[in-house]
């Protein structure tokens, strides 16, 4: 299992170096309103939609690489803490990817608690809670006679992007596109593919995708490919 947080606005990927120490809490709740009736007492009435989902887990940032780490070139523990806290301070919503749970969605970091345990030389333990991000669409009346907008202005930022699934084929549009070990520019370059090369998608990670490339696969940025 691999867990990523991706800041798509800055094309920055943080992969947690150590998997959760116990379990991942990933509940899904329906919305109900409770009404008191004379004949039956309290009854629950199902409402449209679902409650915001909270995903939480505990782990730690190790001072040095060990066999339980998900990759070799780990950052210093305080660097991981700094990145996560900067996202919280700037209200940045990030994309959460958990491979084994097939989770790939935008979230806000609602709670992050780092701590240093006695006897742990430099390791930083933490708990983190993430809440599903839902973009609010607001329509504002600007001119009832406007022909172009029909009297409505859509203030929603367009964050739409193509979605890819296993088996989709894409063609490289850049003159040369790097293939990397992971979904981000911080990962080592494994090689490159030239303009017009066709690649087969395995799994999408935000604006990156793992592809069937070479003997072991590799990640490419989806900004420089187009669907075939």
From TrEMBL:
Taxonomic superkingdom: Bacteria
SMART domains in alphabetical order: SH3b
Segments of this protein annotated with the region Disordered: 148-167
PROSITE patterns per UniProt: SH3B (PS51781)
Residues covered by the SH3b domain: 167-228
Gene3D superfamilies: SH3 Domains
InterPro entries: SH3-like_bac-type
Biased composition (Polar residues): 148-158
Protein name stated in the entry: SH3, type 3 domain protein
Organism field: Clostridium saccharobutylicum DSM 13864
């Amino acid at each position: 299992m691999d867990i990523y947080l991706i800041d798509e606005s800055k094309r920055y990927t943080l992969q947690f170096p150590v998997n959760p120490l116990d379990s991942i809490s990933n509940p899904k709740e329906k919305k109900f309103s409770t009404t008191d009736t004379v004949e039956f007492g309290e009854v629950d009435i199902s409402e449209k939609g679902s409650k915001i989902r909270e995903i939480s887990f505990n782990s730690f940032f190790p001072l040095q690489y060990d066999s339980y780490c998900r990759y070799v070139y780990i950052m210093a523990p305080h660097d991981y803490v700094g990145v996560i806290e900067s996202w919280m301070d700037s209200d940045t919503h990030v994309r959460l990817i958990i491979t084994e749970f097939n989770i790939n969605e935008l979230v806000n970091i609602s709670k992050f608690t780092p701590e240093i345990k006695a006897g742990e030389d430099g390791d930083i333990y933490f708990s983190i809670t993430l809440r599903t991000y839902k973009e609010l669409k607001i329509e504002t009346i600007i001119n009832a006679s406007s022909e172009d907008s029909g009297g409505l202005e859509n203030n929603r930022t367009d964050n739409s992007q193509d979605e890819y699934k296993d088996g989709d084929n894409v063609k490289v549009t850049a003159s040369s596109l790097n293939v990397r070990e992971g979904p981000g520019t911080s990962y080592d370059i494994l090689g490159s593919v030239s303009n017009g090369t066709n690649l087969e998608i395995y799994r999408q990670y935000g604006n990156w995708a793992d592809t069937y490339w070479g003997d072991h696969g590799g990640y490419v940025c989806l900004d420089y490919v187009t669907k075939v």
